[in-house]
Amino acid sequence: MPAGFRRDATLADAAEYRERWGCPRGPAAGAPLPPDLAAEARHVATVTGTPEATTCPLACITFADPWVVEVSRAVALAADLHVPLDDQLGRDLTRADLAALSALKKAQGDAWQSDEKIREQKRENDRKAAARGAR
Fold this sequence. Notes:
- By secondary structure, this protein is mostly helical.
- It has two domains: 1-63, no CATH class; 64-135.
- The chain is 71% helix and 0% strand.
- It contains six helices and no strands.
- The longest helix is centred in the last third of the chain and has 40 residues, at 95-134.
- The protein starts with a helix and ends with a helix.
- The model has no long low-confidence stretch (mean pLDDT 83).
C-alpha cells in the first residue's frame, strides 16, 4: 500500500460524510438528510434522549459552545487530578454550571446502567450457550 494511501482514503471518506450529513462546516448545510442518515439521526436521538438532529448528530460535540468545552474539560481534569471544579475553572460555579454538571452526572449514570444491561445480556447469552453445549 503506497504511503499516504490510507490517509487520503480517510480524508475522502470524511469529505463524503460531511457532504452527506450536511455538517455545519460542510457545503450542504441545511439540505434534508438522505433516508439512511435520517434513520441514523432518529436512532441517535432515541439512544441519547436528545432532539433529532437535522445534521450530523456529533456536530454539537465537535463544534460545541466554548462554555460546554470549558466545563467538560474541567470535569475531566478535576476527576483525574482531584482538584475542585471551581479551581479548575478559575471562577466560582454558576447556576448554569451546576445544571450542566447535574446533567452530565445523570448522563454518566444512564450510560453505566445501559452498559450494565448489555453486560447482563451478554452473561445471559453466554449461560444459555454453555447450557446448550453441555447437552
